[in-house]
Amino acid sequence: STQRVAGRTTVRKDVPTEIRRDGGVPLARLTFEDDSGRRIYEMSSESITVGRGGSNRRVDLRIDSSADVSREHISIRRDRSGGFYVSDLSMLGTTVNGTPLPKGYDEVDGSRQPNGVETPLPDRARIALADTVFIDFEIIST
What we know:
It contains no helices and 16 strands. By secondary structure, the protein is mainly beta. A hairpin with a 2-residue loop joins strand 1 (about 1-5) and strand 2.
């Protein structure tokens, strides 16, 4: 759309929202905007990994962003009772509703070893990846 206000012309390109489903009945919805535009990911598997990905880093939800977002930034898991948990796998940190998460790994002899630390996710949460990409998380089925 083109808009002219006070002698200035502004052109705005509307980019359609991409909706991606990983199959099955959606359990949670992740809505965010990255360098590709506004995106929605409907999570139906019991766990996913989110990050920029790479040749040796497989992620379920690929974020198109600067290197501030780690190749494997977070994992989200649903337990048998229907609760969701997030684990920070990143170098530059993750917050949930503004609260920093503890690291979900320990450095051992120069390599990362998962430590099992997870943080419960409320029914709705704002997850910030290195204060660069903000994901609105919402449970849609229990």
